[in-house]
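S.,

Sequence below, as promised.
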Amino acid sequence: MPSSAQTVQPTTTAYHWVMSVQTPDGRFNTRSAIVDVPGGVTRQQVFEFVYKQFAEEYGATLVVLFFDLQPNQL
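The prediction came back faster than expected:
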C-alpha cells in the first residue's frame, strides 16, 4: 500500500438516550447514556441495543415506559 494511502474511519455520531422500563414484578428503572452510532444505523436498531441491556439484567419481559434518542451535540 502506498505511504500516502489513509485508512478511512467509519463516521459516528454521539447520541444521548434515556429509557425507563417496568419489570413484571413492578420495579422501575431509568437510565441514560451516550452511544456513538455509526452512519446508516436506524433508530430501531439503537432502541434494540438499549433494550437488550435492560433485558439482560431484568429479563426479557419489560414494559418500556419512555424512550428518547437525540443527537448529543447541541
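The helical segments are 43-58.

Coffee later?
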